[in-house]
Amino acid sequence: MKKVLILGAYGATAQIVIERLLNETDDQLVLYLRNSSRLSRYANNDRITIIDGDVQDVAVLKAAMQKDIDIVYSNVGGINLDRSAKPILDAMQQTGQKRLIFYSALGALHEVPGAFGRWNEETIQAALPGLRKSDRLIKAATAINTTQLRPAWLTNYDEVDYEITAADEPFKGTEVSRKSVADVIIKIINDPTLYQNDSIGINKPNTDGDKPAWL
């Protein structure tokens, strides 16, 4: 049994992860989010602790990390992702936390080739500086064993179908389901030796193109 701290627990992928952990493991979960009433359905679940907090509030974040946490999973998003990455990494270092799963996105490593890469750069240009600064912060935090996730454009399709690309490989495909990304997260939580100190791309096979097919 592990104790998992989920930051940004109201996120769509995070909610899939929560349900799978409850159904498939005996793990204890600490759910950290703003406006915690949004997850009030878990209020009476004896495997869940809910904390109302913003990751910018390092004092509250540190208190959450001092609850015998085994692994931290950040599902925090936003255009300026680095502004969340820094307090998360700082709080982990100050509390001795060592294992982090960090949800980022494609393009964080300048790794998306071709016409799709150019389209992606133009489409999410406002978010890319934050993704890339987050990557630099993660690499500098050498005391923390981080797996950075770089999923393709996300869908809500009811499927688990994906492949992984390494940090030094060109990104493949254009899309991937949230259920697929959640499956990767579940596997890492179950076996934290997977993808240690790594940044992995996640995409659905055979979805190459100039942009996601549904756009």
From TrEMBL:
Segments forming domain NAD(P)-binding: 8-192
Gene3D superfamilies, sorted: NAD(P)-binding Rossmann-like Domain (3.40.50.720)
TM segment ranges: none
Signal sequence coordinates: none
One Pfam family per UniProt: NAD_binding_10
Top-level taxon of the source organism: Bacteria
InterPro entries in the cross-refs: NAD(P)-bd_dom (IPR016040), NAD(P)-bd_dom_sf (IPR036291)
The protein's name in its UniProt record: Oxidoreductase (Putative)
